[in-house]
Amino acid sequence: MAEINIRDLAKELNLSIGTVSKALRDSHEISALTKEKVFALARQLNYTPNPYASSLRGKKSKTIGVVIPEIADSFFSHAIKGIESVAQKKGYHVLIYLTEESFLKEEFILSEFKSGRVDGVLLSISRETSNSRHIEELKKKGIPLVLFDRTEEEIPTTKIITNDLESSYKATHHLIKRGCKKISFLSISRHLSINNKRIEGFLKALNDHLAGACKNNIVDCTNDDKQNQAIVHKILERAERPDGIICSVEKLTIPVYLSCRGLQLNIPKDIKIISFSNSEAAPVMNPSLTTVTQPAYEMGKRAATILFKAVEKKNFKMPNENIIIPSSLIIRNSTD
Fold first, then answer.
1. What 3-state class would DSSP assign to 194?
2. Strand pairing of 290-293 and 328-330?
3. What DSSP character marks residue 101?
4. Omega before 295 within 30 of 0, i.e. cis
5. Which of the two residues, 199 and 7, has the higher pLDDT score?
6. Would the pTM count as exceeding 0.85?
7. H or E element at residue 136
8. Looking at residue 54, what is its pLDDT?
9. Distance from first CA to last CA of the chain, Å, rounded?
């Protein structure tokens, strides 16, 4: 079968070559719907861009790829700083790719890497990622890969994580000690191992310290801020509303604060709030936010350090292990 090129994709989709090219580069000029169509067909036809294949054959690109779900979460901005601190010393460029929580986009980005665009990859998976086939295909190409924060347990490689279960347990226990008896956990995705570990720690703390714990305490949220605010608003309007909330990710904090303000609920008198968050704004929020703060910079730095061992040493075998860097519970006014 002849190799698929951009011209073939454009013809099949009835789009201009320029539009397809821009979509593949994730240009802001192209709509999200058009990008999704282009990515889907590219994957279906096994399209792989090859401008780097001939020029880099047998050479190093001096570039690593960092694939993350979003940049708005301050965890990733801090992690990137840690990655950059290592890459700069090594004389490498860092290319950052955003999946925007899309499995399809993540799949396409990794397929691009198979052409030799990067010498190694650091990956934190999207909330939609439910299988690891595309990750396994990248590894088969011999491209070094390290997973960090959001990982896939089935992939045999090094994973840089934090103690999510223990941190969630500690956060839940803290709310219980502060008098909370009806605690809700705002979940971001049941596909993500970090989310499930946090749920596990939450339920364990309820079972250990608060009778009558059940899975009804878990509230599934989305990737849309407006939808999340509506979800939170609904649970806070209940007659038996929660008196404590744990946000599994930073982006769920604002919907909670806004809903409390809209319903004239006092934080922490009426409801106490903890969030997994690295936000520098947490101390100045009103009230200041109690957080489970992840060691983002250290995680990024450690992930990059291990990746470069594989990139620079021909016979380096990437160990299949979890490296755990503990998080910290920082108590502020939202739980006083």
1. helix
2. antiparallel
3. T
4. no
5. 199
6. no
7. helix 133-140
8. 40
9. 66
Q: Which residues of 163-194 are buried (b: 16+ CB within 10 A; e: fewer)?
A: bbbebbbbbbbbbbebebeebbbbbbbebbbb
The tokens of 195 are what? 């989310």
For the chain, how big is the Rg over CA atoms in Å?
22
Evaluate whether 139 touches 133 at the Cβ level (below 8 Å): no
39 membership: H or E segment, kind and range: helix 32-44
Quote helix, strand, coil % in the chain, to nearest 5: 45, 15, 40
Residue 53 has pLDDT above 60, yes or no: no
Give me the pLDDT at residue 65, please.
97
β-pair type (272-276, 322-324): unpaired
The sheet with strand 145-148 has its strands ordered as 93-98, 63-68, 120-123, 145-148, 159-161, 322-324
Q: Output the six-digit token pair for 186.
A: 């705002």
The alpha-helical segments, DSSP class H, found in the chain are: 6-13, 17-24, 32-44, 53-56, 74-90, 103-113, 133-140, 164-177, 193-209, 225-236, 253-262, 296-312
Stretch 189-195: mean pLDDT: 94
